[in-house]
Amino acid sequence: MQLIESNMRKPHFKVRYRFYTEQEGGRKTLPYQGYRSDFWYEHPGGPNYLFVIRPEFEDEKGDLILDRNIPVLRQGIARMLIAFDEKVPYHKEHLKLNTICYFMEGPHRVAVCEVIELMF
After folding, report:
1. Residue numbers of the domain that contains 107
2. Is 57 in contact with 7 (CB distance < 8 Å)?
3. Which among 41, 45, 88, 96 could bridge 101 via Cys, Cβ 3.0 to 4.6 Å?
4. CB-based contacts of 111: which residues, under 8 Å, 6+ apart?
5. Can you give the pTM of this predicted structure?
6. 3-class DSSP state for residue 23?
7. Contact 88, 120 (CB under 8 A)
8. What value does the mean pLDDT of the chain take?
9. How far apart are the first and last CA of the chain?
């Protein structure tokens, strides 16, 4: 499995994502590989608790995007890495296939996601 050189960790799960357009309240431009948003899904911790779970975006062929100078796809697949190892058991318990989740920038949802594969 290909890994981003700077990270060198295996992903914990995959999501199918779609960035909202600016008209939908999303970003003005698409992000690049290396994007560091917050992450949220409904969980017992409450509606205002965000997670540090980072995306690594794939291209149309399912390969990891390695070029950090081109925007990622508006919609596609991302490999998700839980930043803090001590949080892995929590997410392993609460994240399920088909869970709806979001890339967050502050209090703003900028992309909707669905968990499509668990890799714990």
Report:
1. 13-118
2. no
3. 41
4. 17, 18, 19, 20, 26, 37, 102, 103
5. 0.90
6. helix
7. yes
8. 92
9. 15
